[in-house]
Design goal:
The structure holds 2 protein chains of 2 kinds.
Chain A (H helix, E strand, L loop, with lengths): L4 E2 L6 E4 L3 H13 L6 E3 L2 H10 L4 E5 L7 H9 L11 E5 L7 H7 L3 E4 L4 H13 L4 E4 L2 E4 L20 E4 L2 E4 L7
Parallel strand pairs in A: 2-3, 2-4, 4-5, 5-6
Antiparallel strand pairs in A: 7-8, 9-10
Chain B lengths: L6 E5 L3 H6 L5 E2 H13 L2 H19 L10 H20 L3 H19 L6 H13 L8 H18 L13 H8 L1
Helix pairs in contact in B: 3-4, 3-6, 4-5, 5-6, 5-7, 6-7
Classes of the chains: A alpha/beta, B mainly alpha.
Chain lengths: 183, 180
Amino acid sequence: MGQPRLNLKNVTTLLVDSDQFTRGLVAQMLRGFGMDFPTVCETGAQAKHHLMHHYADLCIFEGAHPDMPSADLIRWIRRQEKSPFRFVPIIVMSGYTQLRHIADARDAGANIVIKKPVSPQSLFDRITWVARVTRPFIEAGDYMGPDRRFREITPPEGEYRRETDDQVTDGDKVIDMQKSTAA
Amino acid sequence: MAGKAKKKIFFPKTRLSELAARAGGIFRDDALDGALQSLESMREEGDTEIRKSISAMEGIVFARHAADTLEDAQMRAILRHADQVVTLAGTFCYLALDAAARSLCDVADGLIRANMNNRRPIAVHVQTLHLLAPGGMALSPEHAEKMLGELAKVTAHFNFGSLGATPVNDGEDVIAAAAK
């Protein structure tokens, strides 16, 4: 069987990294994948400003920004209930010395965390993954983000695996599955 | 008594998924070839960045009046530059340099956490990075291996854990299988 194609033309990417050369490296990889040049930001504040005024189809962040941890920026994005970018796929690239913070980024709602140095192969495979595999988003307590259990399929329609799966949405529509029980 | 935590599940449709599924596009092998060529065109610039980072670290540890103990800000600067060398050495496949820079990160991070900030173990690592940097002395693999062995002794002396041991657990196998 031949390889599947991936059409990344016109995908708008927001790349946030404080280091100019690293931004250039990632931008070159994205160009190699057939993507347009990404919008680049150096800080979390710049990224927030960009997202409030423009759209991004994909976000690629470094593990920690000069003005805030990546987890704070991700949490802010996931908590924007009325914004179209709430569910935007987020890939976090963690530097070697930032590896202790990757659990924070994942708990904040990142789709994927990659260790730097990022190879073209690992970046392409992860972009393919977030583009092709629809993972449900879970909002529960402090967490809002993709279901962190890795699998290749979404749950069968009408079947939910957890007792606490009380609401399910399809797009913008919220479906009540069961009322929460207040004891 | 607390009630059961209320949970919502969404199945959002992203524009990335819609765009990626359009007709046309690029095969994985072609995408990787294109990206590798783009990266290769940046190798010279990458080498310059590596040397700049090493020079910055040398400026800190070999300053004329450098004390035996470095300031916290200096240690953080070392960590930042060493992290950059790890990224670039890994990207451009300088394996010995990559190993030495990781060792420096482990030692510097461990010293910071132990509130020690000793200059000498940092200095020995920075000297090694200088020797292993692209465009420097052409060292034999045996010589490079020996130097890395000496750095391992320094790391073993302090017994700091490796940052690289932190699990990422990002479903690597599933992702790789899905992409092919």
